[in-house]
Amino acid sequence: MLTNPRHPWDALHLRGVGRYLVVVDHQWCAPWSVLPHRRSQGVGGKVVFLSNVRFGKRNNDVKSVQSALVAAGFSLPAGVTGIYEGQTRSAYAAWQRSLGLTGSDADGFPGCSSLTRLGRKSGFGVDCRQPGAISTSSVRFSKNSAMPNNEATARGFAEQVCTMTGAPSSWITGVSNHANLLTLMFRESSFNSNAVNLHDVNATGAVQSDGAHFNCSRGYAQVTAVTFAENHEEGTSHLIYDPLANIAAAINYIWHRYGDISRVQQANPNLPPHPY
């Protein structure tokens, strides 16, 4: 079951205001539904996408962040590799601490505010939007036809999605603490791509074409419609039961909320099941 994210944004209800604001790396900004539109300008139009600077990803935006960390005096023993791995996480955590951040705000996983401040120091802009985010009204609820409910089928889809999103293959085989997507998917749906939870706290809203309430958890990874829309992967279907779109939204959600799958108890076979 997926609910609205808490990491790296902590939600606080302001008494007498009647709305939620969120803290991003200790800075106030708009609610989660507005966060995807935050963008800062860089020198010469250079922009780094927050969605590209995730643990395990390999791309030029990671190189830009690594170069900025080195220029700011933080150590990368293996140099600028373009891969967001352990050395980059350690250096980024040091950068966060230099900003006065503590706890989960200084865990080495970039948030919008800390990355924007690094960009200002180094001359690049930051786009905090999820590139593929869609409106909740665009989510569709048609189920899959004749799809086997087994691990091999689920693994095949998960492998495709990891390639698509840039998530490391270890998210399937198991990271250092053995957490992996297949454990999460089995616990959430028993590898049933058409699974829907009709009874948990998310089962609210108007009844949709599949006979379930709007925000019920659905699909392999049991994403809600709101989570699916906010974390939708660009280029995938708007069908919440679609295996590729469903798993991709879950991966993006994990990156946004937890930073890495190793921190998701539901994905860890050595720990009791727990909603994520």
UniProtKB/TrEMBL annotation:
Which SUPFAM superfamilies does this entry report, sorted A to Z?
Lysozyme-like (SSF53955), PGBD-like (SSF47090)
Q: A Pfam family matched by this chain, by name?
A: SLT
Domain (Peptidoglycan binding-like) ranges: 58-102
Residues in domain Transglycosylase SLT? Answer: 180-262
* Superkingdom classification of source: Bacteria
Tell me what this protein is called.
Answer: Uncharacterized protein
> Taxonomy-wise, where does this protein's organism fall, top ranks first?
Bacteria, Bacillati, Actinomycetota, Actinomycetes, Kitasatosporales
